[in-house]
Amino acid sequence: MLKKLGRLTEIKQDREGQSAPPGQYLTKKFPVLTFGPTPKIDLKDWKFKVSGLVEKEFELDWKQFTGLPKLTLDAEFHCVTQWSKLENTWEGIAYRELVKLIKVKPEAKYAMVHCYGGYSTNVSLEVLDDDDVLFAYRHDGEDLPAEHGGPMRLVVPKRYGWKSAKWVNGIEFMEKDKPGFWEARGYHMEGDPWKEERFWDDL
Asked: The whole model's pTM is what?
């Protein structure tokens, strides 16, 4: 199914009437921003590990993960470097679908999303448990290219793009919040674009 997701937050409009968070400009392009080399990932070797505060840790291979019920939705993408791409069609597996397989312990409040290449990012379970959060492997009708996080990336539309981690390979459930890769280097722990939560100085 295709879902159109509305925003309940006060918005800023450009001359064409399109909306973007404060401090953002609109683009039709999808710039590539990556720290370090792009990993080369063979789908035969791809694994997704569920760990941390769960009743049982386990792994899913590509066939098992992508065999879960699929979701297609339209959602915006806001980069902390101040560009926003409003028109994106993502296809993948909803977080809410994945978590049906997981017995998360009640003390878990946060997750660390892990990725090939050593990247990680922290996200609260409250933020993940939304109808527009998914693990995407297609974008605008095509397989997600490696430079944009293929074969699979997390998509968290209500947060800046660094929270939409590329090349995901696992999720770790945690009781207490802790910084991921960019958060440990000064980026904001929450990253809400509507509040301009870009860096720790904004806390």
From this structure: 0.87
